Amino acid sequence: MTDIPTETNGHRPNWTPDLTTIPEQGGPADDGPRAEVVSIDSARDRRHPYPPTVPAKTNPAPDSSTGGPVLEGEVVRVDSPGEADRDWRAELAEKSRTRRPIVPLWLRSRREALDTLKWAGEYSAYVAGYQLTRTPLYAGRLAARSPRGLVRLIAGMVKWTFDLEGEPVRLSAVQKADPEAYLKLSRQRDSRVRLRVWVAGITLVTLLIAGILVATAATAVQWSALAVALAVLGVIGKPADRPLIDRAVLPTRVEKLTSDIVVRALTVLGVSGLNAKADVNFVAPITRDGPGWRADLDLPYGVTVADVLDKRHRLASGLRRPLGCIWPEGDPAIHEGRLILWVGDRDLSKPLIPFTLAKAARHDVFKGIPFGADPRGRTITVPLIQHNVLMGSQPGQGKTGAVRALACGVALDPTVEMWVHELKGTGDLDPLEKVSHRFVSGIQDEAIAYAAESLSLLCKEVMRRAEALKKLPPDLCPDKRVTRQIADIRSLGLHPLAAIFDECQNLFAHPEYGEQAGKDAEFLIKLGRALGVVLILATQRPDKRSLPTGVSANVSIRFCLRVGGQVENDMILGTSSYQNGIRATTFVPEADAGIGYLVGAGPVPKVVKAAYLNTPATQQIADRAYALRTGAGTLTGHAIGEQPEAAPSYDLLADIAAVLQPGEAKVWNETVVDRLAELRADVYGPWAEQEGPAKTAQLTNALKPYGIKTGQVWGTPAGGGKGANRIGIVREDILTAITERDGKKGSGTGS
Predict the structure, then answer these.
(1) Given this model, what pLDDT does residue 83 score?
(2) Distance, CA of 322 to CA of 312 (rounded, Å)
(3) Which helix (H) or strand (E) holds 259?
(4) What are the residues whose beta carbons fall under 8 Å from the beta carbon of 83, sequence distance 6 or more?
């Protein structure tokens, strides 16, 4: 039997018997039950609620993290105490990304540098001119104050010479019966007076000699000396509460933005996680940024910029500034908690933003259109080519003014063909009629039909342009998009075409033309932008019925002024915009007219105030655009008096019924179109000229207003051949539609 180790030094060793050498009941050959033999220490350890932290010092294994041995049963923490190894390359890359520019941003932009220098020059010139014009006033003030200055000068000299300013102290010593202090003060006064009498005498003699010399000098010298004397005496005699020189510019009373002020304002917002103990980290010093202050900071963990944007009114109260001065925004490129707080010196809603092109001779739309300014006063340009624009707001918030800014920029490029549809009937865009290829203003059904026809014509124009662009050589058009070079080749017919639809909800919600207009607009938005066709849509009722989802989902540039709710906000700015903190609902009605969120014109959404253009200013731009286009020979259509050809009157259903042969229950669309072209070549001839699916689509689209649907029908070619399923119509559907229509007309006449 194996010997069992005994205790050493009073400790029981960690020992487990070898079960292979200790026979149980019956010995190794016995098949009866066996009893498990365990170590007493192991049994005790299992009864303890936590494993031992200092096990027996046996079988040490190396630690992969520290390199030292790990004892059996030892608890090793994943995040061991001590400084972790840092990735210096990642830290260097982060520092390189966040480093501040050596040259200020306003000097790196030619436009901003010129604007800053222009502002400084204008400010200096204004101050100089203001003060120069008031020179006579300042001279009169000095002359009027000179007697008082002379009295003050004489009194001051006498007081200084005889040390009269110390008289109250000496009298106080006499009253206190302090002879020692009085004698000390008297001796000090005597020594001062002896020196000052000599200084005063020399000064008087010098002034006397100077007076004699001036009296014998030329008249100009005498007048100059008199002016200097009066000026000196006037300065000495000025009242303490009335400065000599008036301020040309009143000093601003805007409080300097500090970190304490920002933290104080943030902690009163009522946002969970933002309290007096919140960790707000300023990642850069608070600096001047244009006409305001900029603070870059990291919000506490779990607090997002959207939480702060939702409390903009309370933030303005915490900063004690008007709401139009507070413009917080985020920087998602870093993280959702990075807040860029800009506090302006003046309310953005107060000044009117002048239109940059108000006096321009011409403009190139391929460079974008100056649309307005951001809160910092920087010009914001909207890229128009290869984009479509959607604007929306409540009535009276400046939407039409924003449309004018884009329309006037387009008008100043003589290569752009303008189609203007003002579907409100107030004449806001009437000045641009003289330069428009197609123009309509009104809310009547005729105006809506005209606008719907424009969309249909644009779809055909896009198809024509696609074929024309496809034929261009790769060296002229490598990207298959309209460029400035291609647009200038007028013979190609690929010049930019901008179609403006103001109050487009009246078109898309029309019971007769709205559905097809929505489909045409969606088709144009998807395909037209690469072919030089641009849609500018403006609406004051952004809902699913008035603004088709296919249109709102595919527009690339959006401008949303004040709206009433989250649904309208997301219809204009895109899904989840409200949730992400881009909320046009925070603008103040009427007070913030012209201010909105601009999305798609830059990498991040921006608050922009659109340039202001009234009717006379728009008329002046239109006059210049008319002269410019007349000289370039690009006036077409409505601008030169051409009227759209009146569509020939016809009854489509009756014509289809006439061309259907007896016994034909179902007929292919292409067969019906060919027969209609033979019946009325002037009306249906263009339909028959189409090829492939476009030919059948003409009839399909024309039957939609009557509620007739086309589908697969069996037929055979007119000249014989193999039968097949193709798109066609059912004779019974045509007859039913005619019966229902005639029945409605009859009931209407009888009433």
Answers:
(1) 55
(2) 11
(3) helix 259-267
(4) none
